Amino acid sequence: MPLTLSKRLDAVIPSATLAINARAQALRAQGVDVISFGAGEPDFDTPANIREAAKIAIDQGKTRYTPVSGIAELRRAIARANETDRGVVTAAENVVVSVGAKSSLFNFALAALEPGDEVIIPAPYWVSYPEQVRIAGATPVHIPSTLEAGWKITAEQLEQAITDKTKAVILCTPSNPTGAAYTVEQLTSFARVLRDKQCWIVCDEIYGKLVYDGFIQRSLLAVAPDLVDRTVIIDGVSKTYAMTGWRIGWSIAPVHLSKAMDTIQGQGTSSASTPAQYAALEAISAPPTELENMQKIFAERRNRLVAGLRALPGVRCAMPEGAFYAFCDVRSWLGKSSGDQRLESDDDVARWLLDTARIAVVPGGAFGAPGHLRLSYAVSLGHIEDALQRMANAYATLR
Ligand SMILES: Cc1ncc(COP(=O)(O)O)c(C=O)c1O
């Protein structure tokens, strides 16, 4: 008889984005021409100066463990960048470098949450927020948003959702999965609500530099520096510098919380990879020459993909301000059939698109928005054009 697994797993859903990518990769391995909109990572190479910095670090023998919270130079550089970007005085002691921003969020969950705590998470949400909260034994509480509202919650909704049990609020701007980003005015209205409440404010700003059409993404911390004692910034190099595989992210938090997160990390993973930390140091210290080019390309793709999705019968899509995702409403497709395949849910639509059009998309239910699809535009313009045509052809078979 197999040994039993932890009950902790009962409440946890495996990552839907990783699952769809695995299925698309398996089809590709069989020689099937799949266009994947499932990726949560830029399709660019890590810039050469960053790769070079890692090679130099390896050649210089920087290949041993580092302090759990990261090398001093990187923590200092992150603190300096935080002062420049968010305008708050920051010390290296406020920074914990982790194995990607995902593990920074996990450190927070394990260091700050306990059973009975509630964590407010606006929906649609990035898949790992509720699952990490559940693993920590706490309860996710979702605030719904709508396409009409640009996938943004209001300060009134936030105020109503906060109770005595609320231990933390997670705000992600620009958002995965919708690309929606909050304006300074919206962040100011959130700060007004949060100022009177006793809870942690977790700001996931991993897509903060990927915004388009001149949108200005400010941090909640820049808007409300007085909240610094309760704010946890989550950031990293994965998206901004096309460094997903290097696995470097960080938290910037009050020192007592950072020490607790260091303790959790010290028993979970120890430090992040040493050469990767030196690469991250180069990424945030050197002029971001490739970033502008990446922003330009993402903006072009966003415009084409959103226009193309909106041109499909019955599909609605808000224009995302940032990140590299389009989130579209396909509820009008539900109830239709293609041959003997009836589309009852977004899962069915995603499976059908993969099977018939060879397009991988992520069903919205995974992000708390059934009836929608997330398409990542970390895909070339040529593939976007091809995929839109394939989708139109597939739609034409629906009855
Ligand atoms: C909103 C959000 N936060 C955090 C992460 C984690 O990033 P990392 O690769 O640094 O772990 C992701 C990655 O998809 C994300 O979309």
User: How are the strands ordered across the major sheet?
Assistant: 2-8-7-6-5-3-4
Return the CATH architecture of the largest domain: 3-Layer(aba) Sandwich
> What ligand species are in this complex?
pyridoxal-5'-phosphate
**SSE pattern:** HEHHEHEHEHEHEHEEHHHEEEEHEEEH
CATH topology of the largest domain: Aspartate Aminotransferase, domain 2
Query: CATH homologous superfamily of the largest domain?
Result: Type I PLP-dependent aspartate aminotransferase-like (Major domain)
CATH class of the largest domain: Alpha Beta
What can be said about the biggest beta sheet? 7 strands, mixed
Indicate the proportion of strand residues.
5-15%
Low-confidence stretches: none
* CA distance, first residue to last residue: 48 Å
Q: Helices and strands: which structural class? A: alpha/beta
Helix count equals 13
The count of DSSP E runs of length 2 or more, i.e. the number of strands, is 15
- Could you tell me the radius of gyration in angstroms? 21 Å
Q: What best-fitting shape do the alpha-carbon axes yield?
A: globular
Fraction of helical residues: 40-55%
